[in-house]
Every structure is written in C-alpha cells, then in structure tokens.
Amino acid sequence: MEFSAIVVEKVPSLLLRPAAKVRWPALFDGVDSVLEDWIVDQMHIVRPVVETGYENLLLVRLLVESRLPSIRKSSVAEGLTVEDILENWSKIKPVIMEEWDENRDALIDLFGKVRDEWMDNDLATWIGANRFYPGVPDALKFSSSTIYIVTTKQSRFADALLRELAGVTIPPERIYGLGTGPKVKVLKQLQLRPEHQGMKLHFVEDRLATLKNVIKEPELDGWNLYLGDWGYNTQKEREEAANISRIQLLQLSDFSKKLK
Distance between CA atoms of 37 and 193, rounded to whole angstroms? Predict the structure, then answer.
C-alpha cells in the first residue's frame, strides 16, 4: 500500500517554512502571518499533486511568488490559481525547476536534512505533528495479510511514524521508500517473489496517476487496484477512477476489511 494513503503529515506549516528559508533565505521576508496562513490553506488544497516530498518546497515558493510580484522569478506565477496547479502541475514543475535553476536531488536532500534535524532535536514534536487516519493503526496491527509499504517518503521517516505513532513494526525489507525505484517497478518485484505465487495481490494508493501507470503495464494485470478516497486526491479524480474498470474506490471504513 502507498504510505500517504494511511498517514497525514502536517508538513506545510511545520516543516516547509524552515526548509524553504534554508534554500531561499529571502523568500519569506515579505510574508506576514496572514499570507503565511493563506499559504498553509492553499497547500492543503494542492497537496494531491505532490508525488515526492521535495515538490512541497516548489509549491510553497510558487504560491509566495503568485502573491508577491516583487520576488517573482517564475513566468507561470502571475495570475496562478490553485485550480491551475491541480490541473497542470506536471507541466508547471519542469518550468519552475528550470527558471529557478533547481536540482531535484539537492531539494530531496534538503527536505530530508531539515526533517532529520527536527527529529534529532525534538522527536516528540515531530511525531506529534503527524497523525494516522482513523482506524488505520489497528487495521495494520491486526491484519492477516502480509503488508508492504511502498512510498515516495524516505524509508526512515515512514518507519519512525509507523513505530512511534501507530505502534506498528514493519520489517525494513518490507518498506520500499524513496530511492527504491518507481512504484511500478516495486510491484513487479513483489509479484515475482516465490512466496507470492498464487496469492491475491492488492495495491492501495491515493494518487490516481500512479494507478494509471500500473494499468499501462500488462505484467501487473494480476494486481487488484484501489484508490483510497480519503487520501490526496480530488473529487474529479475520484469520478474519473469510478469509470476505470481496473480501479476500485475504497472508503476508509472498508480499508481494514481488505487487510483481513
């Protein structure tokens, strides 16, 4: 299952500002408390477009530039709306990465470093800034199924949240985090394991784009696919998924039943 379908991290308000200030020191000079609250609100809306954590930093800067012309360096920021971001993020992202001269790996490292420092200095506060969706910890604890975590989050963060917040221990060899390859590749690896032959395989994900990538791969036709309707997806995406025969919409209340 995909990790963001089972846990919410309050990244925008507590992690993104220090991370963004490290990368772009002058970024928040003109940001008052009103604008900062607005940014946090908008981040909750646009969060479904994020595939990997570092993209949150790009979104924060883009939102700031959309409101502060004096610091604007992106050609797409003027007049930008959250609806534009939701519809066109895959096109916007490469444009701003080039215009801001940013490097994906460097942003990933920065995002992880800031989170590491926070965890090292105050683990309790970091853990407290997260929450699992209701019922998920018990569903994981009492599942009769073998669970694998497939996530774009770095494995050490996923492991810490599972252990410290949910009280669940997933063996490290069953956590596929950032750097282990695309999710499609991981699913192919999992289905080839001898112990999985003849078993029903289920993939719970909250990003429709990821499920559509799975559908494109004939090798993965044996997977049962679910879009968690409680996760990072929009009403439009849920409506689209409802018309795709391979995908089942899954409600949070039914999640634990699928793990039995």
Answer: 47
- Number of domains making up the chain: 2
Instruction: With respect to residue 123, please indicate whether it lies within any of the assigned structural domains.
Output: no
Q: What's the CATH code of the domain at 193?
A: 3.40.50.1000
Q: Can you tell me the distance from the alpha carbon of 55 to that of 97, in angstroms, rounded to the nearest whole number?
A: 10
Look at residue 63 and give its three-state secondary structure: helix
The DSSP H or E segment spanning 249 is strand 247-250
Mind listing the pLDDT tens digit for each residue in 104-146? 999 999 988 888 888 888 888 888 878 888 888 988 888 888 9
pTM for the whole thing?
Answer: 0.80
Beta bridge pairs of residue 24: none
**Any residues with CB less than 8 A from the CB of 155 and at least 6 apart, and which?**
172, 175, 176, 177, 178, 180
Residue 146: which domain range? 132-258
| 224-233 residues labelled b (16+ CB within 10 A) or e (exposed) | ebbbbbbbbb
